[in-house]
Amino acid sequence: MKTHLDWSAYDTYGMGDAFSGVPISGGNYAKAVAVCMHNRQCQRSTGKGVMCPSFRITGDAAHSTEARVAAFKAALNGELGENPFAGAELAAVMDLCVSCKGCKKECPSAVDMTLIKTEFLAQRNDALGVPRRARLFGNLPAWVGHHRRAVRGIVRLRNRSRLLARIAERLLGIAADRPIPPPAATPFTESKTAPADAPRGEVLLFVDTFSHHFEPAVAEAATAVLTAAGYAVRILRPAADDDEPGRPLCCGRTYLSTGQVERARREARRMMAALRPAIAAGTPIVGLEPSCLMALRDEFYSLGLGAEVGQVGKQAYLFEEFLVREAARGMTLPLKPLNRPKALLHGHCHQKAIGAMKSVRKVLSWIPGFEFDLIDATCCGMAGSFGLEAEHYEASKAMAELSLLPTIRAAAPDAPIIADGFSCRHQIQDGSGRTPTHVAVLLREALDVG
Predict the structure, then answer these.
(1) 16, exposed or middle or buried, with CB in 10 Å at 0-12, 13-18, 19+?
(2) CATH node for 8-128
(3) pLDDT tens for residues 418-447?
(4) Measured between alpha carbons, how far is 353 from 102 in angstroms, rounded to an integer?
(5) Annotation: CATH topology of 343-446
């Protein structure tokens, strides 16, 4: 079996373990599947943590990580036919997987179902072709990178017209009842005014597709906060020899989520070329969107990009992670009270998967008198394009209704709702009518500068 991703990290898994049950085909991919030891933490309907949102809304073990592992073992053992990736069995067990990474964090065996799903989709695309909707969603960075105004106009028109929304549902499978976030009227533009003093040196800010085209206020706020903390902020731009110098850089997340691995690898190579000077200089790399920054520290290892990926992983930080690290080295941030009701904080699944919520809580505690509660919730249910898909719309809402949306509705009407994930903010606004904010935007509001 030829795989699209590099599974060599699993080369020694199952060695000498009589109970590992590694399938007879699939090589190291099969070993990644076989790490499951049937602990069944994925079949919890209550309790803290993310895993497994599809089981939590259905109560059906068929939609748990363990069941998915069993199906992949059967497929790789030849029990599901000659081309199991094109068949209905694997498609059914993977249907409600939202790639939350909860299993990688919370499963005692650290099953990486997110990566396993990416390989599954890539194999399925080989067998059946890339579905039209997957091409549409996966190519988002290219669409908005080259045709932002046209995309904005089409999305706004579709959102206003019930007829067009229903036509799009029929032709593309995009849920008619779900608004689609349009690109902002003006994308992110780097300030040309250099700080008069930057005693703490330079940082490289990775402005992802969503922060650049859809919510530029997030990148603007992060720049202001980092500048106030004493840093010279440089925006990560394509390398001089990039084939598309005018298109902002992308981590490839949308391509990975739709199984378009070669397209993701192309985006990742653009990123690595742009990062090479920062790698050499040891410059910190700061990201704003959890799933995008986490791609640099996680999925890039599986794209076969070379040894430099390991160094990127050491230099790349989420916005809050970087601030906490620098505070331990003497950085101070001038902040004033906000005089707001107790806030609610929702963590992106990928933030939770790497334990990054500790940094978010720490940073929020710097705002004088600011109180907040962390919402104990599984995946918000939007999960990139999952909540936009017609057949998954109800499942997406059900995940949000487990605890996230009821908790928000019960909060004070003017209580801040904090969420770093673009998809999370989309789901919260759509389901509650409340407008959430990124931590960077909240910190900029709290800056005490003249």
Answers:
(1) exposed
(2) 1.10.1060
(3) 999 999 999 999 999 999 999 999 999 999
(4) 6
(5) Rossmann fold (3.40.50)
